[in-house]
């Protein structure tokens, strides 16, 4: 084989390997950081197939949502030790991935995220009493922790999605005292409801009694002697016109009203049967 043919074959093989070396694939959910002898390209490669300098290194960094879990015992403002389980959902900002690689490195989670999470949790919980974790202030505390983490890591290229307080454990004596207090408050609320119901029932009975009293007063004021006499005359007239046999004595009553005597009296009916005879 001639030397020229050798050289041609070697050149083709070299070109083939150079093309293979130049083709880089960035998986979905990742970006590629191009590093050529320490010179980092300012723009990261999106997911897909790319051709780069065969001498450059491409470092793939995930931009998917990731979770950091922290379990810690931290003091409250009164010095009590509170056990917390915290989760942080975050992802790498694709537009700042090259800066994160340049200033922090690919292990940015352990270098940047974890320490700031622990620092924010301890700083915020130390300014609250332990009982706040069992009150509406818990949401306020979570918001403050989230804000502290955002201020620390977002300018560095890490986007925080959400901070979660997964579990909270207080000292046993304090937890019991809080439960007793909550039970007492619930019992007081129940008694207030009972008292309010009884008060409303008393008001109802009072209004009902006042209505009955007013009705009786109106009826009493409307009845007089002349009305009673007239009603007596009407009743006497109705009885006199009825089909029953009675005796009416005019003017014999206490108030000059008729007196009605008698009732149903039937005339005697002759007997029928055996004839009389001696």
* Percent of sequence in beta strands: 15-25%
- Order of strands, widest sheet: 3-2-5
**Share in helix:** 40-55%
Question: Mean pLDDT score, rounded?
Answer: 78
Please state the overall shape, judged from the principal axes of the Cα atoms: elongated
CATH top level class name of the largest domain: Alpha Beta
Radius of gyration: 52 Å
Helix-strand sequence = HEEEEEEEHHHEHHEE
Give the full name of the CATH homologous superfamily of the largest domain: Band 7 domain
Number of strands: 10
At CATH's second level, what is the architecture of the largest domain? 2-Layer Sandwich
| Largest sheet features | 3 strands, antiparallel
List keywords for this structure.
278 residues; alpha+beta; Tetrahydropterin Synthase, Chain A; 4 domains; three-stranded antiparallel sheet; 6 helices; disordered C terminus
Can you characterise this structure?
This protein is α+β, with helices and mostly antiparallel strands. It folds into four domains: 3-62, no CATH class; 66-170, Tetrahydropterin Synthase, Chain A (2-Layer Sandwich); 172-222; 226-261, no CATH class. It is built from six helices and ten strands. The protein has helices spanning 3-22, 97-103, 108-125, 137-153, 172-222, 225-240; strands at residues 23-26, 30-36, 39-40, 48-51, 57-62, 66-75, 81-92, 158-169, 247-249, 259-261. The strands form four sheets. Strands 3-2-5 form a three-stranded antiparallel beta sheet, covered by helices on one side. Strands 6-7-8 form a three-stranded antiparallel beta sheet, covered by helices on one side. α3 packs antiparallel against α4. The radius of gyration is 52 Å and the shape is elongated.
């Amino acid at each position: 084989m001639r030397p020229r043919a050798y050289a041609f074959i070697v050149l083709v093989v070299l070109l083939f390997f150079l093309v293979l070396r130049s083709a880089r694939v960035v998986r979905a959910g990742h970006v590629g950081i191009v590093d050529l002898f320490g010179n980092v390209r300012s723009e990261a490669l999106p997911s897909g197939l790319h051709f780069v300098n065969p001498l450059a290194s491409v470092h793939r960094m995930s931009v998917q949502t990731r979770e950091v879990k922290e379990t810690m015992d931290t003091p409250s403002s009164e010095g009590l030790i509170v056990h917390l389980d915290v989760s942080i959902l975050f992802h790498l900002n694709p537009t700042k991935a090259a800066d994160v690689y340049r200033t922090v490195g690919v292990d940015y989670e352990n270098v940047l995220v974890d320490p700031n999470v622990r620092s924010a949790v301890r700083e915020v919980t130390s300014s609250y009493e332990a009982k706040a974790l069992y009150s509406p202030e818990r949401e306020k505390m979570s918001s403050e922790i989230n804000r502290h983490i955002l201020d620390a890591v977002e300018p560095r290229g890490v986007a925080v999605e959400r901070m979660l307080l997964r579990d909270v454990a207080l000292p046993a004596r304090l937890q019991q005292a809080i439960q007793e207090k909550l039970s007492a408050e619930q019992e007081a609320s129940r008694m207030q409801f009972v008292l309010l119901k009884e008060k409303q029932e008393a008001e109802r009975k009072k209004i009902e009694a006042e209505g009955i009293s007013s009705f009786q007063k109106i009826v009493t004021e409307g009845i007089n002697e002349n009305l009673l006499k007239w009603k007596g005359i009407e009743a006497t007239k109705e009885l006199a016109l009825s089909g029953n046999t009675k005796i009416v004595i005019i003017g014999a009553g206490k108030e000059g009203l008729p007196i009605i005597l008698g009732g149903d009296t039937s005339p005697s009916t002759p007997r029928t049967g055996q004839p009389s005879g001696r």
